[in-house]
Amino acid sequence: MKKIIATVIIVLAVMFIPQGVYADSEEQNNEYYDRLISEINEGLSFEGDEDVKTALEDNNITLEDPSSAANINAFDVIKHIFESFTAALRSPLIMLGKITAATMLCVLVRSMSAEGTVDKVFTLICVLTTVLVISDTVTDSLYSVK
Hints:
Blueprint: H1 2-16, H2 31-44, H3 50-58, H4 74-112, H5 117-145
Helix pairs in contact: 4-5
């Protein structure tokens, strides 16, 4: 019981006895502070993504006048989302068309070839072509995620 009371008294003493705290000292080296301020100023200069710049220009929004963002309406937002959706849907549909064309070409070549070693070579070429088409789209997707 004595340990519990002593612990409570120590905790209360630490909580209620004021300690002197100094936010800045003349003796400290302010290199960290100066570097932090320069990083903040570089971040505020906004030399960012081209998509962001284009979206801001399309909606007549400038960084000098932030109140210009109030001119955006719901129709423009929905229109932009729909355009982004159709642009994102375009790439998989192009890939599907390329795979379908490669598959049809492979089936045509395979039907015209005789059984044997040439058939295996055509099958290998068709598989490699399909993998090449898929890898191109997957690589673009990975760069987009990056």
